[in-house]
Specification:
Radius of gyration: 25 Å
Structural class: mainly beta
Low-confidence stretches: 1-22, 503-507
Largest sheet: 6 strands, mixed
Oligomer: single chain
Strand content: 35-45%
Strand order of the largest sheet: 1-31-30-29-28-2
Mean pLDDT: 90
Length: 596
């Protein structure tokens, strides 16, 4: 795509961001490139589940449940979903064109998607229906500061956010504030509940990269210039200290109260000292070439720290080739803190800007070398391979287990412990069509590293994920934020271990409870019709029919309309289309209106 076309796409994204919907907005699919129809939609074969035993990190008391709370799955930043993702069985794809890359995908207590999408003018908070991708609510956040940051590598001011234990989004803003935003009207709107001003700690020209709570509920934040601090959630008091080293990624929080931050020079363990002032417990410098390699947003590690195993923390350095590093994370240790240093990928072609997948004793790293921005993957171009698994040795040290040649320019990969698949998002060369820009959801077997299957996510610039992750939803759907918005890929039949769609009672019992309710209004000629019951969250669309004529259509819960029925006896039907494609009908006879 040309620079002019890219400018047009971003202008369209900005225009879409200008207004928040009062009602649910059906998704507008992301436009496919010209070569989409000629590309293979699927390759490989459907997977059989091979569960992997991965300890689930402790549930954070001030964050949504693990798997639902933030970009890296949990407070330990493990990038491991305990539930399943798609197995490749009749995979269905949907997309919605929104106002930018929807990176952090979280799920509220009703299973709805809450995400911040960052576009050319700034970020926007959205609530989406997880199956249809309808927009249920939207709230524009403070816009970008003109001339500050690279549009495609600036994650500050909303790129990282988390969903708390009360379904509230906690979001750093471009104005150096932290907003706590709650849902209103049952999920039809948003409202700022708290506004913490960090202007005295994060000075003009600096930006908040991330904010997370520790296990006591105290908010921590980090800025791009290296300021770390805490916020007392009750009083709003801010305490901070400068580390003097740039920070380009999020951080991890441990159930001991410790916080782990990686700067462009070192890995830190911090704790809250007197009055909440951050105190450095230890600092470990890592090898750094001093070069911001293509594929990185800064000349540093590129990883959010991953807490794993028995008191360990993993990052990469910025050597050439780069190394996976694993440290003991205790406050004091009797032996050297570094226990693993394993080179990954080729010299002159190794870089990452993604958190590591961390299990009890295994790590998966991804190579992003060559991704200098969307132009690096346009016109059939792609980046250096691959993905690599590193395992810890029982007596200390570590070794490489497998290397995959897949090319994942910039996605945050995830592991499903339930089915043993690593999910990534690849840009493959297309020998039959060298100029095609084909993006695929790609799965690797965690044990062997072999590619299991690929499913086309889309073709063209709008399907470039640009540093956004793969996120596995509670119902087994894989979501990928892309430049055009958000795409979803799911098996036609949910994989074993997946949860029922949000709000449903599940299965036939939920469907049996669906019913059509009709009540005449004053005057008798109109009636309020509504589909009710425990299975309404299985519903995608309802057509209300009087006699043989459709009189209303509703795509949004609570599936209620006012229709004209006349004063005579009439048969009303609700033709219901379910999210899984099934159709059911509910009928009710409305008696003749009483004459007054």
């Amino acid at each position: 795509m040309t620079a002019r076309a890219l400018s047009g796409l971003l202008a369209a994204v900005a225009a879409l961001a200008a207004a928040g919907p009062a009602r649910a907005v059906p998704p507008q699919p992301i436009q496919e490139g010209p070569d989409a129809a000629t590309l293979p939609a699927f390759s490989g074969r459907p997977a059989s589940p091979h569960p992997v035993a991965v300890p689930d990190p402790p549930r954070h008391p001030f964050m949504a449940p693990n798997g639902r709370s933030n970009l890296h799955v949990d407070g330990y930043q493990s990038d491991v979903h305990q539930g399943p993702g798609p197995l490749g069985r009749d995979v269905e794809k949907r997309s919605t064109f929104l106002e930018g890359v929807c990176a952090s995908v979280t799920f509220d207590s009703r299973g709805r998607i809450e995400t911040v999408c960052v576009g050319v003018e700034g970020p926007k908070l959205l609530l989406l229906e997880p199956r249809t991708l309808e927009t249920l609510a939207a709230l524009p956040l403070p816009p970008r500061i003109p001339g500050v940051g690279n549009l495609f590598t600036d994650f500050a001011g909303g790129g990282y956010f988390y969903l708390d234990h009360r379904d509230r989004a906690v979001i750093p803003t471009t104005t150096r504030h932290v907003y706590v935003i709650r849902q209103t009207g049952g999920g039809t709107g948003f409202e700022i509940e708290r506004d913490y001003d960090l202007g005295t700690a994060v000075l003009p020209g600096d930006k908040i990269i991330s904010a997370l709570p520790d296990w006591s509920g105290r908010l921590w934040f980090a800025s791009t210039s290296g300021v770390v601090g805490t916020i007392d959630p009750a009083s709003g008091a801010v305490r901070s200290r400068p580390l003097g080293e740039g920070i380009a990624n999020s951080f991890a929080v441990e159930d001991t109260g410790a916080v782990y931050i990686v700067t462009d020079a070192a890995l830190y363990r911090l704790e809250a000292g007197a009055a909440g002032v951050p105190a450095v417990v230890w600092r470990e410098a890592y090898e750094n070439s001093g070069v911001q390699k293509p594929g990185q947003s800064s000349a540093g590690s590129g990883t959010t720290p991953t807490l794993m195993g028995d008191g360990l923390v993993a990052i990469t350095d910025n050597a050439d080739p780069m190394n996976v590093l694993v440290y003991r994370r205790a406050a004091a240790v009797p032996a050297p803190r570094l226990i693993c240093r394993q080179p990954v990928f080729e010299k002159g072609a190794s870089a990452t800007d993604q958190s590591l997948i961390g299990t009890g004793r295994s790590i998966v790293a991804e190579n992003n070398y060559g991704y200098s921005g969307p132009g690096a993957t346009q016109g059939g171009k792609t980046t250096s391979p691959g993905l690599e698994r590193v395992d810890l040795d029982p007596g200390g040290g570590c070794h490489s287990v497998w290397w995959s040649p897949e090319r994942a320019p910039s996605v945050v990969p995830k592991l499903s412990a339930a089915n043993g698949l690593v999910y990534t998002y690849t840009k493959d060369p297309q020998p039959q069509d060298p100029s095609a820009d084909a993006w695929y959801l790609t799965t690797l077997d965690f044990e062997s590293g072999r590619t299991v299957y690929k499913r086309l996510g889309g073709e063209g610039l709008g399907h470039n994920n640009n540093y956004a992750p793969v996120t596995l939803g509670p119902d087994g759907t894989a979501y990928v934020g892309v430049l055009g918005g958000l795409i979803s890929l799911r098996d036609r039949v949910s994989p074993p271990g997946a949860k029922a769609p949000a709000g449903s009672t599940g299965g036939r019992k939920g469907l049996r409870r669906l019913r059509l309710h009709v009540r005449r209004l004053r005057g008798g000629r109109r009636a309020r019709v509504r589909v009710m019951g425990g299975g309404t969250r299985l519903v995608k669309r309802v057509d209300f029919v009087r006699g043989r004529r459709r009189v209303a259509r509703d795509r949004r819960w609570p599936f209620r309309r006012v229709v004209r029925v006349g004063r005579g006896r009439v048969r009303m039907r609700a033709r219901i289309l379910l999210l899984d494609g099934r159709r059911v009908t509910r009928t009710r006879v409305v008696r003749r209106a009483r004459h007054r």
